Amino acid sequence: MSNTQEAADQLLDVNLHENERSQREIESDVGKKSEHLCVTIGATVPTGFEQTAADEVREKLGSSCRISKDRGKIYFDIAVESLAQVHCLRSVDNLFVVVQEFKDYQFKNTKEEVLKDFEELAEKLPWSDPLKVWQINTSFKKKKTKRKKINQNSSKEKTDNGQGDESDEKDGKKKLGNSASDSHILDYYENPAIKEEVSTLVGDVLASCKDETDESLREETEPQVWKFRVTCNRAGEKHCFTSNEAARDFGGAVQDYFKWKADMTNFDVEVLLNIHDNEVIIGIALTEESLHRRNITHFGPTTLRSTLAYGMLRLCEPKPTDIIVDPMCGTGAIPIEGATEWSNCYHIAGDNNPLAVNRASNNISSLLTKNQIKEGKTSWGLPIDAVQWDICNLPLRTGSVDIIVTDMPFGKRMGSKKRNWNLYPACLQEMSRVCRPETGRAVLLTQDKKCFTKALSGLGHMWRKVHTVWVNIGGLHAAVYLLKRTSQAFVHPSEQDGGRHPR
Fold first, then answer.
1. Per-residue b or e along 349-367, where b marks 16 or more CB atoms closer than 10 Å to that residue's CB
2. Average of pLDDT values for 240-252?
3. Distance (Å, rounded) from C-alpha 267 to C-alpha 260?
4. What sections of 274-349 are H helices per DSSP?
5. What does the pLDDT look like over 90-114, one tens digit per residue?
6. Could you tell me which residues belong to the region Disordered (predicted)?
7. CA triple 53-54-60, angle to 5 deg
8. Cα distance between residue 95 and residue 78, in whole Å
9. Residues 6 or more apart in contact with residue 262 via CB below 8 angstroms
């Protein structure tokens, strides 16, 4: 190594240590200022699983939780000292701190008057405490490491003087953001195009250290001016303005009030303007990268969100030593989430597609590697195995499985509606064979509700439907069915006449 290289490395080490010390001092200072500070946190969750998320908040944080009338959102009060624990919740996608909430906002009659009110509102809001929380939050939030690069590659983006990136929600539908990494996309399947972005969260984080050091040196010589953007999400038919217009005018007033610089892609602060009928909530985003983007590094055509996988698993209330099987695991999102949260159970990820089994195995390996790096020691592994099998002829003993949780093919991206008419009855019959009578349960996700209902009706003596959760899967109206195995012993149709003994 040359003397120049050695000197550069030493300088980098010194700068990194200086930055760490400065960061600790800042956090300590902010911490002192925010002692005994209590704030309201808002969280977006998979639609239909609001109650599940509320239960998790009460269980893990001891906080009461309110479910918003705007689907897919919950609100809860916490002391700022618990902020790190909020980021560990398994059921929430994105987090924000509430600046102010108007439960019955009185909109004026004309667009001009409404937008004028939004402009005047910016300087009246209690920004101080939420901004303190935002500063504390920056020390442990999960950052979008590829945000700038991906946004630059976006084909088109709304600018609106720097305060855009909003979506209208007329007729209950949201337009997808142009960026593949948009943290507010309500598609519960991952986009394979973001594989590179998510993979970097497990891999080479240190590669950008030098760039961050150079940037911090520039910041020391230049005055700090925060960059921001405003994102407006609007739902309701009676508004005389668009979310684009609301974000533009409100964002302009925020810029004038704080003297911040508007930046659509490389922003520090994201101000949220959530409007649902007459309810208006202003917040500051606490997540850049959605919390559902965990565990999965190898993506398939239909990779389920980890937060939705958690919700499905929680529905069946796993008990210690339960054997939990996903017979159509795809990339393994459900069993991997299960092995992470319910490590006292044994999880089996199976699929008939060798490519899917390979992806699931790679995702398990990546998670193990990530855990070893995080803990700084060799991991004992996870209670999970990946197997290739035929869903209609599982290599499992009769009555050996406690829980079955799976995402069944919709017949859209995978399989076909026509094929489902034969596949669903065969799947349910084999599931009823391997699932333990009386205590066994199954949680099954499908958008092909007509086919599933028909298949279930033919096996009513084996399965009892307990509960249905309606969810939004990438704009598709889907259902999660919680089934309970009856006490009826399984007898194969060909054995009902006394031909052979059941397996």
1. bbbeeeebbbbbbbbbebb
2. 94
3. 10
4. 306-315, 333-341
5. 999 999 999 999 999 999 999 999 9
6. 144-179
7. 85
8. 13
9. 161, 162, 163, 227, 228, 229, 251, 255
